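lol ok so funny story. i was supposed to be doing the assay writeup but got distracted and ended up predicting the structure for this chain instead. priorities right. anyway since i did it might as well share w the group, maybe its usefull for someone
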Amino acid sequence: MRILVIQQKRIGDVLTSTIICNNLKKQFPLYTIDYMCYTNSLDVLIGNPNIDNVIPLSHKVRKNYFSLFRFIFEIRAKKYDVVIDVYNKLETNLITMFAGSHIKIAYHKWYTKLFYTHNLKRFENTDTPKYGFAIDNRLLLLEPLNLDQNKIDPHPKLFVSPEENEATILLFEKHKINRSKKTIMISLLGSEKNKTYPLEYMVKVVEYVANHKDVTILFNYFENQIEDAKSIYNSCSQETQEKIHFDLFGKDLRSFIAIMNQCDLIIGNDGGAINMAKALNKPAFTIFSPFVEKKIWATFEDGIKNISVHLKDFKPELFADINHDEIKKNHTSLYQQLSPELFKDKIDFFIDNN
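and the output, tada:
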């Protein structure tokens, strides 16, 4: 059989949905498992033995109707038996509709019966997540294929080559990283401004981390974010700056993954960096934006290895009688109320126990 898994959007989404491929290949090793995603997320799929073919859908193809329909008919020619559409938006509705597959699986929407043979209702906020709804809802899409539930592995995984590991070890040596100390990655900035913890607060978080005696601190940022990263660094005390290796950072996704693989744990903004760290089996402390639903992305929370904080944890009254759009509109003022003093003891506990 041939199965196509479709997951567009951001890095965290694409990485998380690989659990569908991993579990399909684990139980059906002779099946061909293909994965479709945007080109910006291809690096998190490198080395994954559970994906036979990666099918990139570029921005150029998506925005041109002629190119998109040519792409759709190229997919149809592959004759997939099953399509699992995790994304479930118009472009993937069309891809699935024309794929000619016998089994077409997606989440339920009012119109999806037109496109899919199996329409599954997501877990709601009133439910209690098992692994976090981002994981639970993806595993839900496997139900029509009758996998053995006792063999399900819910954990996304990243794969780092020996060559990447060796190059990163040499990089650490070049920067004189003392491996006898805990190496802590700080995810300084979110994927968007509205997912970024206020910079003046992040300075305090970095200071809390540096207060621990035997730690080395690395910053996660991209080159186009260097001014914000410098602002945080320059606002830190001299003692803290001495523990930060500012110039050691991942200039692209694969280099970040390889660097993270040599770190002990990660602390910082919710986003792709946190998801990648967890996929490397690293402990993660996550700070959520006020408008992000913690039940969805606080995955594998156990109060020790994976801990997260959200303003709603401390001041639930602020979220009474306010909808998602209002929260998002007022994220700046809400973020200001999530002062780092509220969770300093949690950061200390997290570092001490990992």
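The mean pLDDT is 94. The two ends are 43 Å apart (CA to CA).
back to the writeup now i swear
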